[in-house]
Amino acid sequence: MFKENLLIYILFLLSGVSALAYQVIWQRVLFSTFGVNIDSITIIVSTFMLGLGLGALIGGKLADFYKNKQIILFILIEILIGTFGFFSYEIIAYVGNLFVLSTSFVIFIVNFSTLLIPTILMGATLPILITYIYRSSKNIGYATGILYSYNTFGAAIGALIVGFVALMYYDIPTTIKLISANNFIIAFFAFLISTKAQNEAS
Predict the structure, then answer these.
(1) C-beta separation of 147 from 133 below 8 A
(2) Which spans in the chain are helix H?
(3) In the Cβ-directed half-sphere of 29, how many Cα atoms lie within 13 Å?
(4) Most CB contacts within 10 A, which of 58, 92, 96, 139?
(5) Residues 6 or more apart from 16 whose CB is under 8 A from it?
């Protein structure tokens, strides 16, 4: 059971790498636009917390509605996250230029809204993959625990890589592009898993 789903666990670990890497790097972008202050920190942390929570609810509904298509959903979500991530520096910078002279409340709402959708997508991946792993394990506690542990470990790796490695050698736009490339790599290998499963079923 563990071996047959090992690649899924690794892909979800890499998904966690991207998620926290985005959080760190988007916070840096907000700092460069609006300064290092409590507002920028509040925007990114509150957006991630709400987005992950809403995403978990939405992902659970999607996993139940699209039965036996959890990997396809995961692929689509990773592609969407990677696409937003690829353009996120330009998007955040553009929004910053438009609203830089606005009140703190307006800046909060605009940036909050901009980053909410990708964080919802990130949050949706956990219940979707839990449903997928549960099909083979028949143990919801096992499925939840192992996926959450891999994703959390990946998140720690992502924060460390961005904070202590990537930004030492690359600028912010390049680092963001590398993070988004990780999402597309995840989607590619998830596609291979889906294709293999379809071939075995036919």
Answers:
(1) yes
(2) 6-34, 38-65, 70-99, 104-137, 140-161, 167-169, 172-201
(3) 28
(4) 92
(5) 150, 151, 152, 153, 154, 155, 157, 158
pLDDT on residue 201: 66
Q: Could you tell me how far CA 26 lies from the centroid of its own chain?
A: 12
For the chain, give the number of residues: 202
Question: In the 8-state DSSP scheme, what is residue 3?
Answer: G
Would you state the structure tokens that stand for residue 142, as one six-digit string?
């096992």
- Here the tokens at position 12 are 């979800």
| Domains of the chain and any CATH numbers | 3-201 (1.20.1250.20)
Phi/psi of residue 170, each to 5°?
Answer: -130, 155
The residue among 97, 87, 104 whose CA lies nearest residue 183 is 87
Looking at residue 2, what is its pLDDT? 61
Q: Any long-range contacts for 109-113 (C-beta under 8 Å, 24+ apart)?
A: 111/30, 111/43, 111/47, 112/43, 112/46, 112/47
DSSP 195: H
